[in-house]
Design a protein that fits this description.
CATH class of the largest domain: Mainly Beta
Number of domains: 4
Shape: rod-shaped
CATH topology of the largest domain: Jelly Rolls
Largest sheet: 6 strands, antiparallel
CATH architecture of the largest domain: Sandwich
Number of helices: 1
Helix content: under 10%
Structural class: mainly beta
Distance between the termini: 124 Å
Strand content: over 45%
Length: about 450
């Protein structure tokens, strides 16, 4: 049969080589042992290798042309012989060969099972002298019984040790009795030359867009790869794949090149993605919230509803949040709230506003009949308290800001000399937590 495959992986030899054919023969001439082939009948039993036309023949040949055949059985079975038949190639010149030299061949039996006698044995030698004694004394480069029937097995050996010599290869059918037959075909000696694959990534890329999500471009088109593998076929892939979503900032991409000899190389590059979409945010006006007497509190409102935001991001979607969150208990006085807006391009903006949390005076002139509880009113420096069991006195400006506080037992006077002139609200709280509010004027 004709040998068509020039690149191969066999017996641990990876497919990262170019093959230079030194010798090949598939017996397609149909003439017994032309071009220097020869045979030896080492046991002189008259049985020998022969060329066999397998056209129309069944497994293992599938009717494909001519093969060499040697038998260990003769019809009618189970009559058999113990062969010792040698098939010698023409001389093969390895004097200029260097590196890895590989022998490959096919061998098979027409028997279908071990019990069906497919276990014919074959040894293969690489020889510089070819007498029966030389063959008997040589160490085979391959030896073994067939391991399956009705199929051509791909066999071979590394024969690099014979580089620098002129050799013949001997195929010896022996060491078996009354099995069946052995076919061999497609003898090939090749020098395997290591191949090289190179890969260079393109320059880093900088992308500017207001689209979200931005997708990874096909960067393999910017990479450069070359191989000296026969056929020069290189496939480029990338990870993450083209079309994957990009993150804002640096995105590392790995490009992988694979050639038809099985070599691989990788390189990396960076795709920098900058989103030029703009986001704007304006907080609402500051707010003032009152609280009732005796320490009752209020919670922070949702101020995001008063903030306005917009974005130029494609298909803009803006989300607003606040910190502290709505519902958080407020402290008395100034509560600063930060509002954050985020768009679907990943842009953010913040602004701040104030929620003033003050005492809710909750009184009118009709409720001030108790103003005689403090005197003098107006006063310039202090006032007296005409009320028993007062444990706390608080003074508030008219806008609700607390300006003075004292605590004690049965408080009877309050120093107000530090206050500016004006109107104030005084809250007197008893030990029983009863609160009284009244107006006070500071002169």
């Amino acid at each position: 049969m004709k040998k068509l495959l020039l690149l191969f992986a066999l017996l641990g030899v990876t497919a990262t080589y170019n093959a230079q054919i030194i010798f090949t023969d598939g017996f397609e001439s149909g003439t017994p042992f032309l071009d220097g082939w020869s045979v030896l009948d080492l046991n002189a039993d008259g049985d020998q290798w022969q060329i066999f036309d397998v056209t129309g023949f069944g497994p293992p040949t599938d009717g494909q042309g001519f093969m060499a055949l040697s038998s260990s059985a003769t019809p009618p079975l189970p009559a058999g012989v113990q062969p010792d038949n040698v098939l010698l190639t023409p001389s093969i010149d390895l004097t200029a060969a260097t590196g890895t030299i590989q022998l490959s061949f096919k061998a098979g039996s027409d028997a279908t099972t071990a019990s069906g006698k497919y276990e014919d044995f074959i040894s293969v030698y690489v020889l510089t002298s070819f007498t029966p004694a030389d063959i008997a004394a040589a160490t085979p480069v391959y030896a073994g019984a067939l391991t399956a029937g009705a199929i051509l097995l791909n066999l071979g050996a590394n024969i690099s040790a014979s580089a620098g010599s002129i050799v013949k290869i001997a195929f010896r059918h022996h060491n078996c009795l009354a099995e069946s037959s052995i076919f061999i075909d497609d003898i090939l000696v090749e020098k395997l030359v290591a191949t090289t694959l190179t890969l260079t990534c393109g320059a880093d890329q900088n992308l500017l867009s207001s689209t979200s999500p931005m997708t990874m471009p096909n960067v393999t088109t910017t990479a450069t790869a070359a191989t000296d593998c026969a056929g020069n076929v290189v496939t480029l892939t990338q990870s993450p794949a083209a079309g994957s979503a990009l993150s804002v900032g640096a995105n590392s991409v790995t490009v992988t090149a694979t050639d038809n000899c099985g070599n691989t190389q990788t390189c990396t590059m960076v795709v920098n993605f900058t989103n030029d979409a703009a986001i704007t945010l304006t907080c609402g006006a500051d707010q003032t919230i009152g609280y009732i007497a005796n320490g009752n509190s209020a919670n922070l409102p949702d101020v995001t509803t008063t903030a306005t935001a917009s974005s130029t991001c494609s298909g803009a979607v803006v989300t607003k949040t606040q910190s502290p969150a709505a519902g958080t208990a407020m402290t008395e006085g100034v509560n600063t709230v930060t509002v954050t807006a985020t768009d679907n391009c990943g842009n953010t903006q913040t602004c701040t506003m104030v929620v003033n949390y003050h005492y809710d005076l909750g009184i009118d002139d009709n409720e001030l009949a108790i103003s005689k509880l403090i005197y003098p009113n107006p006063s310039t420096d202090l006032f007296h308290i005409d009320m028993a069991n007062v444990s706390q006195v608080q003074i508030f400006a008219m806008n609700g800001d607390k300006v003075l506080t004292i605590n004690g037992q049965s408080i009877k006077e309050m120093n107000v000399s530090s206050l500016n002139k004006g109107m104030y609200i005084v809250e007197l709280t008893t030990v029983d937590q009863l609160a009284y509010k009244l107006k006070f004027e500071k002169n």
